[in-house]
Amino acid sequence: MKTVLMVAEKPSLAQSIAKILSRGSLSSHKGLNGACSVHEYTGTFAGQPVRFKMTSVCGHVMTLDFLGKYNKWDKVDPAELFSQAPTEKKEANPKLNMVKFLQVEGRGCDYIVLWLDCDKEGENICFEVLDAVLPVMNKAHGGEKTVFRARFSSITDTDICNAMACLGEPDHNEALSVDARQELDLRIGCAFTRFQTKYFQGKYGDLDSSLISFGPCQTPTLGFCVERHDKIQSFKPETYWVLQAKVNTDKDRSLLLDWDRVRVFDREIAQMFLNMTKLEKEAQVEATSRKEKAKQRPLALNTVEMLRVASSSLGMGPQHAMQTAERLYTQGYISYPRTETTHYPENFDLKGSLRQQANHPYWADTVKRLLAEGINRPRKGHDAGDHPPITPMKSATEAELGGDAWRLYEYITRHFIATVSHDCKYLQSTISFRIGPELFTCSGKTVLSPGFTEIMPWQSVPLEESLPTCQRGDTFPVGEVKMLEKQTSPPDYLTEAELITLMEKHGIGTDASIPVHINNICQRNYVTVESGRRLKPTNLGIVLVHGYYKIDAELVLPTIRSAVEKQLNLIAQGKADYRQVLGHTLDVFKRKFHYFVDSIAGMDELMEVSFSPLAATGKPLSRCGKCHRFMKYIQAKPSRLHCSHCDETYTLPQNGTIKLYKELRCPLDDFELVLWSSGSRGKSYPLCPYCYNHPPFRDMKKGMGCNECTHPSCQHSLSMLGIGQCVECESGVLVLDPTSGPKWRVACNKCSVVAHCFENAHRVRVSADTCSVCEAALLDVDFNKAKSPLPGDETQHMGCVFCDPVFQELVELKHAASCHPMHRGGPGRRQGRGRGRARRPPGKPNPRRPKDKMSALAAYFV
DNA sequence: GCAAGGTC
To answer: Smallest Cα–Cα separation from A393: which of A320, A331, A323, A339?
Structure first.
């Protein structure tokens, strides 16, 4: 029997489609990557009985990157990234082993049906799948077609079955347009980002961002926030005047009337109108009207609307809201949360979904009434052909979900119920009055039936006092007419919800990527989230955007994305050649890039105002080995040392504190050592600022401290302080932390393992001798007489931390003796490899090392 | 270390 491989874009879709096509009789198993499942069933295909294997990928299989050597920032001129630097496709998520998985499942299959999402990205993934799978599939005989594309616009029985009945072919042009987008985004984004980052980081010390990034989506996103900031800054309040009239409708009731002219900006004119009206005793009714109006029930919920409400009403950022929604989805509480669609599919079981909520403690009454009286037809929304709108899938309580998950679930459910409720109906009454020559109006709303606002009370029409019944020609006594002086007020910072709307309107990002872009501009320190989730640009964000405006405004305008997309669409429609469009667009941006580089002084002028040059930043910390003057420690990210005399900058490890290390110097370059320490585990090690940036030995890499230095005789080096191989990781060595006393510590120089030992010893030294059993370096430990825990009033002892019985009580490694990795029989120091470099030869596991004991041992360290 | 787009 022949086999048909079918591939969807994500595991959840593979399952739903397989269920539909197999009519529920299928067998499923997990794939080798643990993320994707394979659903098998039998049926007919091309007029013959076949076995179907339905599985999925997880989004893109491949991602685009530069060849490795072009990822070295110091060695590559960013301008090269526009054309010279070659790119390669890499697996998008190596952990998922997607290519291998597809090949295992695809081997020996005869046909393939591609069920990827029906958009350009999906078309592109089709070809990623084919690249992986075609080489291992059975070859077609006699030109028989073996590759098919299913096109569907919703995940419903009819749509899926129709798609299966009229299979087409994947569209190469659409896929190519995505290839072009990927390459453009990569080359343009990386070139600008690297150039800006290197240029400004080399000049300013207080930028407070380790990356000055640029991108066709994130930069316009930031642009929106700064645009609002500029409006606020340039806002000049204007004074205006308003007439306000009161009429008495009853003995002790009065109505406040709004002036039909609303406001005037000239005081004298306002005064003139006031003079003309204030002597009038009576207000005459000119007209009355009563109109029944409706406030529409909401459209079915899509991602972007959910994110807007989450931000504006629930105070949850888009990234957090998406994570919460995804959890609710994987736990079966809501439907798939990434969709653009606001229209329920024809066969959507609205009543069934509603019935699930009929006993919910919060909204049972509303739901039961809707079910009894009949639900309202949802409004016609937009069908993007991706997934149904976001709806609850089962009932859940506050106690069950808790916190933000509950609040989001509650909103989604109330929104769903609202979509099948009736519109809110109210009566709008208006009365217009004439006082002298001037017209005034007053209006009021009365709710006729609350409709959906019952389940969404925050949307309800506010209660207002009802208006008196009257008709044209009636008169009321004027209570008072007064003139109010007011001022126009500036707009406030952009809310996240407004930003999402702007991004959606200008086609910046997608439902899935909008939260990522917003998160990016926060993390890069371009904007901060203020109360009410308003986005306030930082100095850095403002300077960047103003700089682009000055040099080349197109770089920050929202049209930058849409202009490129227009070109890409030509590729997708087969109207333009992929190579030509790519080449042309790259050429345009390459010119822009060179112009930007040449004009960077324009942006720099703005930077100078807000930021301080490296030499003026930070505080003197340690001496430079070249000029022996103090270098300044710049704490702002990325933390580094700067020698203003030599004009050199030395990066330091991030996320920790840096101190001078006893004015000790590196024997290789005379730089003063600094001590890095991390808060959480109390780990610390010395490092030489020069060696950290310029590794002194061939077996060392950039970013290594003295605890990884292979200097044979320096007292701070791994060679002198290393004890033995790490108990957890493969390549690490346990190194004595010479600064850790009196709570002495030994820490791995690669992983997070830390062990505490010899508390209160006043000196611990690593001896040149090694343990005869395990080859670890012996430790020489001195205690004060009063505090010595050693037997028989001894104050000094030398032994192996792993094997010595005296040390067993004093080291948290006390169980280590019989199963320390040193027993594995690897070459030790005797073989001349240097202490701590001892490694187990590959493929020679030690039979004496029981696995469970190793994990028990590991527990002591972490 | 960089983009944006999928998705877990």
So the answer is: A331
- Closest nt to residue A73, judged CA to C1': B1
Distance A851 CA to B6 C1' (A): 39
Q: Give phi and psi for A607, each to the nearest 5.
A: -60, -45
CB atoms within 10 A of CB A443: 15
Angle between helix A403-419 and helix A364-373 axes, rounded to 10 deg: 20
Q: A309: helix, coil or strand? A: helix
- pTM for the model: 0.81
What's CA A676's distance to the chain center, in Å?
29
The phi and psi torsions of A525 (rounded to 5 degrees) equal: 70, 35
Residues of A annotated as part of the active site: 336
Residues paired with residue A657 on neighbouring β-strands, in sequence order: A677
In angstroms, the CA of A360 and the C1' of B3 are apart by: 46
Sign, CA dihedral A100-A102-A104-A109, equals negative
Across residues A623-632, what is the average pLDDT?
Answer: 86
Host H or E run for residue A239: strand A239-248
Contact A516, A502 (CB under 8 A): no
* Minimum CA–C1' distance nucleotide for A66: B2
Answer yes or no: are the C-beta atoms of A440 and A246 closer than 8 Å.
no
Amino acid present at A468: P
pLDDT tens-digit readout, A684-708:
889 998 889 888 888 888 889 999 9
Q: What is the 3-state secondary structure (H, E, C) of A601-669?
A: HHHHHHHHHHCCEHHHCCEEEEECCCCCCEEEEECCCCCEEEECCCCEEEECCCCCEEEEEEEEECCCC
| CB-proximal positions of chain B, under 7 Å | 1-8
- pLDDT exceeds cutoff 50 at A857: no
Strand B neighbours among A 169-228, CB < 7 A: 181-182, 185-186, 189-190, 193-194, 197-198, 201, 210-211, 213-219
